[in-house]
Structure formats: C-alpha cells, structure tokens
Request: fold
Amino acid sequence: MWDRIFNVDNVVFRTIDKIGKIFLLNLLWLICSLPVFTIGASTTALIYSSMKLKNNEGYWHSNFFRSFKENFRQATGLFFLYLAAGLFLAADFMLGNQAGNTFGLMMQAVAGILAVPYFLSLLYVFGVQSRFVNPVKATIRYSFFMALRNMKYTIQMAILMILFVWINTTTLLANFLTLIYGFGLMGYFFALYYQKTFEKYLDPKEKMVGESITDP
Reply:
C-alpha cells in the first residue's frame, strides 16, 4: 500500500507535478511578456507548452522557449494587428456614443458587427499560430473558420474568457491570484480545447491548415 502511495507515477504525484509546472509556465509567461510587445509570442509559447504538458511530451521549459523562438516574429505581428484592430473598434464605438445621433448609432452598429469576427478569431489565433505553420493572413482566416466550425467549444472558451476578464476587473484578490497562477491555468484550459479542435486538422490525410510544428 505504501509503495502505491509514494509511487511518483500515481495520480496524486502526477497531479501535483502538473500543478507545479502550470505555475512555472505562468511565471515564464509573465517574465517573457514584460516588454509588452512580446505578449503574442509568450501566449503562443504558453499554449504550445501547455498542449505538450497535457500529453506529457518533452520538457515544459524547452517547449516554451522553442515555441517562443520559432513563433516570435509572426506572433508579435499578430499581436500588433489585433491590438490595432481592437483599439480601432473601441474608438469607433466610443466616438459613436459621443456623437449621440443617427450617424453615431451607425458607427456603433458597424463596430459591433465587426467585433464578432474579431473576437471569434482572437479566441483561436494564438492557438493556431502555436500549432501550425501558415502566413499571417491564413492564420487569421483559419482561426475564424475554426471558431465557426467548432461552435460548442468556441462558446465555452468565450464564456471562460469573459468570466476571466470580468472577475479580474471587479475583484482585487483575483488580480493577485491571476498573477500567481491564472494566466498559466487559462493557457492550460485553452490548450485542452485546442487539442480537441485541432485533432482533425493534424490528421495527415486532412492537412487543411498546412504543416504542423510537432516535435520530430
């Protein structure tokens, strides 16, 4: 009995080990995101290493830095594209609100309509970037269509993201917990959804999104 309890391969030790690695990935994400413009590359690396962690493949830190390095340029470009688009939509909505007339309502309506594909693709874009090799335009396009074709997972991810943002904007304690563990945990949860979504695209007979960056 004692051999089973203290066996490092039992479920308790594996769970503790995974919790510890998620904490360390959270710390790595924070450190690598400090320059701000590296958030896209850090998020891509977090998702990739979380998917590998789920499958017990490789070393968590090696997977993180490998993905960070390989995806740095394109993930950074995606980050700035989505940041600019998000600021534009927010400014359009606020200006429409300030106008207070029919034209202003039209501006808000357009911003609201454009925000839907923006948000849907944002949910997937860094996951797609972490797992597939494609040009920027193709990555964005595939992210949007994956969101539409896997709406059950997309809705769950959207709810999770909205709750995450809402809790962190309303509760001070949540900010502290997020810094300590939250980003890593969110990355891990999203990685679980991405693995379920990407399975069909990783089949050699269905290379819809191009070549994957799986370990050799």
The first helix runs from residue 2 to 5. The chain has one domain: 7-212.
